[in-house]
Amino acid sequence: MKMKIYSYIRFSSTQQAQGDSLKRQLEIAEAYAKKVGGVYQKKSFNDMGVSGWSGKKRDGLELMLEMAESGTIEKGSHIVIEAIDRLSREKHSTVQKLLYRIIDTGVCLYISSDEMLLNEVTINDIESVLLLAVKITLAHSESEQKSKRIKSAKLAKKKAGLDGKATRRAVPFWLTFNEETQKYECNDKLFIAEKIIELRQKGLGETKIAQRLNELEMKPPRAAKWSGISTALVYKSPALYGAWQTKEKIDGKYVNSDLIENQYPALITYQDFLLMNPVTNTVKGKDSKMNAFKGLLKCAKCGSIMSRHTFTNYNKTKYVGFRCNDAGKNLGCDAVGYRDMDKFLFKACKYLKIVKQVKTDDSDIEIRQLESKIGQIQQAILTSSDITALITTSQTLEKQLKALKAKSKPSSDVTVEQLINSTNDPQKFNLLARNLIKTIVVDVKKISRVKKILHAKFEQHNGHLISLTVLENGDALYNDTEATAELVNNDLLPWEE
């Protein structure tokens, strides 16, 4: 029975798959099979675009080891690698353990670059041991130096960015670096980014945006079709408002570092970016996705967010209700919930007013600068021993940020008609509603076990106010006169200061 020949192929970058690296390594294994009279197995193993230095888990290598240890790869079979650094570029002791793990299964390892066949005998040969030691050490040292050079280059680019200079680097598809001006410019792919922004501002989710782009045959930069993930990466990118989000590696994971302003041509304002990417503290799950007013409803008693829930009554009939998150968790609030509240809130939205805002300040830049500072301080808290002063500074900056955001009013092109027409799509409605509504404060008064009175006060970003009252018999009263503003200004809620 002829021996079976397997190959293990690895390279660090996906670009190498398009070059000759993959082809070359395959040909080496096939040539070896002919040389020794073995049978080359098409079921071989590879890790494409994976570093051999970082110690990161490699699926191809793990599968090969599992099959060797289980006997699926039979004893006496040969595994071919182009060079020892294809197997690993880690430190000598780690690579040595890996080699013994393979050889101990009775499988042989052939290293083509050195024409070395390792088995239970040759792996302990002094000449083989010395040669491997040198090769492994050189591979590890080379990767270590390369890592330092890359890290140094990244730090240099980051420093240049902080100094207000643009440098060539990987950027979103709609940007190109101009060597003459040493600045970034929008290229001929700009229309795709603008289309994604347009669809997102209309309330479409990532999947529907991807479907629309594919229908319009707008090709993505590096794939056959758009996916929900790829569209979300675009509308969540700070590059849309001109900022470069730098990253650094901590404990093997990349985390956000400095946010550097004015690096790219801005396509939208920071406030418009926030409206496209709302962040809330509401409860996640099916009801959250069905909540058209997610993140907008606040309890009048404690100020906590109110969420949508599906309940089951005594006769096992399901119904929808809204309640305060803190009250639902018994966190000191005794507010009661209200059934089918959204149908009244939808009707109240007809009274929203559109007032065009003209921005006259630099609040966008101030907000981003504060957020960047807070991020840096919070990162320092994780790595410093004396954190008291850092925590105090962070709290002070967070208060400043909250106050600045409260003053900043986003511009909006959303119409009331657009909002009303999207009531059948909760997620779309929610995204559009955030453009018009700042908050809805809800107060429910319990009259009896089944009778309640609902009060809701809408505050728009433009300062317009609407009041809604639903009486115990179900009659709804709406008020959007100037008297509402006077009432709210002179009658602070229990949780307001």
Question: Your description of this structure?
Answer:
The protein is 41% helix and 19% strand. The chain is an alpha/beta fold. It folds into four domains: 4-142, Resolvase, N-terminal catalytic domain (Rossmann fold, 3-Layer(aba) Sandwich), CATH 3.40.50; 164-276, Alpha-Beta Complex (Hect, E3 ligase catalytic domain fold), CATH 3.90.1750; 286-356 and 412-490, no CATH class; 363-407. The strands form five sheets. Strands 1, 2, 3, 4, 5 and 6 form a six-stranded mixed β-sheet that branches. Strands 11-15-16-17-18 form a five-stranded mixed β-sheet, with helices on both faces. A three-stranded antiparallel β-sheet has the order 12-13-14. The N and C termini lie far apart (86 Å). The model is unreliable at 14-19, 281-286 and 491-497 (pLDDT under 50).
> How far apart lie the N and C ends?
86 Å
Number of structural domains: 4
Report the strand count: 18
Strand content: 15-25%
- Poorly predicted regions are 14-19, 281-286, 491-497
Determine the fraction of residues in helical runs and give it as a percent range: 40-55%
Q: What assembly state would you assign to the polypeptide chains in this entry?
A: single chain
What does the radius of gyration come to? 31 Å
Shape: elongated
Note the main sheet.
6 strands, mixed
Question: What is the element layout, followed by pairings?
Answer:
Elements: E1 4-11, H1 15-18, H2 21-36, E2 39-40, E3 45-48, H3 59-70, E4 78-81, H4 84-87, H5 92-103, E5 108-111, E6 116-118, H6 126-162, E7 175-178, E8 183-186, H7 190-201, H8 206-215, H9 228-235, E9 244-250, E10 253-260, H10 270-276, H11 286-289, E11 297-299, E12 306-312, E13 318-324, H12 325-328, E14 338-339, H13 342-348, H14 363-383, H15 388-407, H16 416-420, H17 426-436, E15 437-446, E16 452-460, E17 465-470, E18 476-479, H18 482-490
Parallel strand pairs: 1-2, 1-3, 1-4, 4-5, 11-15
Antiparallel strand pairs: 5-6, 7-8, 9-10, 12-13, 13-14, 15-16, 16-17, 17-18
Helix pairs in contact: 8-9, 14-15
